[in-house]
Amino acid sequence: QEMLVESGGGLVQPGGSLVLACKASRSIVGVTMHWYRQAPGKQRELVASISRSGQTDYLDSVKGRFTMDRDNAMRMVDLAMNDLKPEDTAVYFCHTDFGLGSAGTTWGQGTQVTVSE
Q1: pLDDT bucket at 9, cuts 50 / 70 / 90
Q2: Most buried residue among 2, 20, 39, 82 by CB atoms closer than 10 A?
């Protein structure tokens, strides 16, 4: 069973920064990776994606504040989050299918990000 393990969440004041990391149990070369988040009482939403070539896409509300990057050698992706707002409070999940479609769909356990005074 393949795994994704997130780290880096925590409590931060509005305007602060955090960096989330996600480490995969197998190679992520050629694989698109995603960060999702889920706030209490809300549906899970796609926050950021990075293609195998490094092209990134972001949720409109985080554009200009969040940056996703990948390190294939380390089997890791990260999400640098700046100018955090209370509405960014959520559990953040790393996700991929390792290029295998539904057969390879894998979610991390999630890491809590709380933005509060």
Answers
A1: very high
A2: 20
